[in-house]
Design a protein that fits this description.
The protein contains four helices and seven strands; from the N terminus they run βαββββααβαβ. It is of the alpha/beta class and 165 residues long. α3 packs across α4. The mean pLDDT is 96.
Length: 165
């Protein structure tokens, strides 16, 4: 079983609240039970790339509306878990992960589409994509609306967890 966790934060890289704790711990617990659990996060400028040995993999472009947007792909392994990071300075260079509603809507729409766009590039096809909180809410929508023409994405299931409702 392969599970991809998609979230806006994960300890120790970036943590605002309980979501960061869950994403920092749950994938490791699943891996101990034989699940190939991996995590994808935004690469905020506040994340120390050197401290966590975060390495560049490749870049692609993601279409969002009329825009064709740079999307850097970075990765590291931390405590046995593979973490992938979506890089885009325009969206993720602010001093904190969350800002204001209008700005965050576009930022996380890009993130959600980028998550799916990088999967064939990194060669990871999860059985389940586990989305966390509203910031990843468009992942299931994009998966079933925009990505089904590609055989790679057919049959991938999604689950959504809302934290601190």
């Amino acid at each position: 079983m392969k599970v991809l966790f998609v979230a806006a934060e994960a300890s120790p890289f970036v943590k605002v609240g309980g979501l960061g704790d869950v994403i920092g711990g749950l994938p490791a617990a699943l891996n101990e039970n034989g699940v190939d659990a991996r995590v994808v996060l935004p690469l905020y400028s506040s994340i120390d790339r050197n401290k966590y040995n975060i390495r560049f993999v490749k870049y692609i472009y993601v279409s969002l509306g009329w825009k064709h947007i740079y999307c850097g792909i970075f990765e590291t392994e931390h405590k046995g878990i593979k973490f992938y990071f979506i890089d885009n300075e325009y969206y993720f260079s602010g001093p904190k992960p969350y800002d204001s509603a209008p700005w965050d809507l576009e930022k996380f729409a890009f993130f959600s589409k980028a998550v799916l766009s990088v999967l064939p590039v990194i060669g990871f096809r999860p059985d389940i994509i586990h989305c966390h909180d509203w910031q990843t809410g468009l992942v299931p929508v994009y998966l079933h609306d925009s990505f089904q023409e590609n055989e790679f994405f057919r049959g991938i299931k999604t689950v959504m967890t809302i934290h601190n409702l």
